[in-house]
Amino acid sequence: MKTVLYPGSFDPVTNGHLDVIERASRLFDQVIVGVALNDDKTALFSFEERKILITQACRALPNVTVSMFNGLLVEAVNQFQATAVIRGLRAVSDFEYEFQMALMNRELNQACETIFMMPKPAYIFVSSRLIKEINQFGGDISAFVPDIVVKALKQKTGSGRHD
Ligand code: PNS
User: Which atom, in ligand 1's list, is nearest to the CA of 105?
Assistant: First the structure.
């Protein structure tokens, strides 16, 4: 059975992430979405909340599960017995960081291969950071995240359109 690990912060999950998950679910027997616990970014959503949002958004994909991991990604790859790591590549600007991370991970664990997947062009400019910012100022994010995330963001920030 081929398992792939899709790691990230997912704060919150976006349609771009979901597009990558859906593509990966067609290529692998099992996709584990790994929410990183030790990310140094200040998160809006707790790990449990992120896990619930991803799980709900992926409920139509039976071979997708959501887990959390703490520490190094290469250790999570061993822990989940993953064949590879999936990362989404949106634009050339993502490339340098992703390239460096993929090579470093392979240096740390020769078995850690990274596969890059491109989301639909409609999502290449979508990021969790921008979604949070747009929502904070009452902008419409409904085209970029699933409905459950729209609701969760509105609850979290108490924001909404004020027109
Ligand atoms: O969604 P993000 O924030 O781009 O995800 C980054 C993430 C969580 C995949 C990356 O920071 C990571 O792998 N963290 C685990 C710690 C680790 O292994 N760091 C060394 C990477 S070479």
Answer: 22
How many Å apart are CA 34 and CA 106, to the nearest integer? 18
Nearest C-alpha to atom 18 of ligand 1 is from which residue? 72
- Residue written as token pair 């017995």: 81
Distance, CA of 3 to CA of 83 (rounded, Å): 6
Give 115-144 pLDDT, tens digit per residue. Answer: 999 999 999 999 999 999 999 999 999 999
Element (H, E) at 117: strand 113-117
Has this prediction a pTM greater than 0.90? yes
The rounded Å distance from CA 162 to ligand 1 centre is 36
Burial of 142 (0-12, 13-18, 19+ CB in 10 A): exposed
